[in-house]
Amino acid sequence: MEERTTKQTPSHLLDRVRAVLDTLELDCKCRSKVDDALERFEALENRRQVRALILDARHQAERIAALLELVSELDTVRIDETDLGVFDEISLLFADIGLAAACGAEDMMRARSLASAEKETTVAPGGRNGR
Q1: What is the Cα–Cα distance from 77 to 121, expressed in whole angstroms?
Q2: 3-state secondary structure 70-88
Q3: Which of 7, 63, 86, 87 is the 20 to 30 Å CA partner of 115?
């Protein structure tokens, strides 16, 4: 899950590209074309990331469903259970369900954030930052 939090969003990377481009003396027509191309690229990259996050969240939901099937073994556990390892196994299954749920929730929060950023750039007059 550490990889998820260290990835930069497309807008952070594009902001760095824009900072470099701002140091160049481009004519107005060229600058406009470059800005438009960067905005289209950012929108496409945001959509790609949202799609990937949704797919991963679906995978987490499928994982949770499979783990719940295994947890159904809880129905067979008796008060006087002799195999105490069953308690450990079921405890680990619940922990895995919690991890999958946390990953799915994080995926959805990141997808919402990216989708929200996409809506802001498409609604803003003149594109990103009024350009």
Answers
A1: 55
A2: HHHHHHHCCCCCCCCHHHH
A3: 63
d(CA 96, CA 103) in angstroms, rounded, equals 11
Q: What does the pLDDT average to over 37-41?
A: 86
Whether the CB-CB separation of 43 and 122 falls below 8 Å is answered with yes
| pLDDT tens by residue, 80-103 | 999 999 999 999 999 999 999 999
- Verdict on whether the full-model pTM lies above 0.85: no
SS3 content of the chain, % helix, strand, coil (to 5): 85, 0, 15
In this structure, what token pair is assigned to residue 4? Answer: 């998820």
Q: Which amino acid is at 113?
A: S
DSSP letter, residue 24: S
Cα gap 102→64, rounded to integer Å: 11
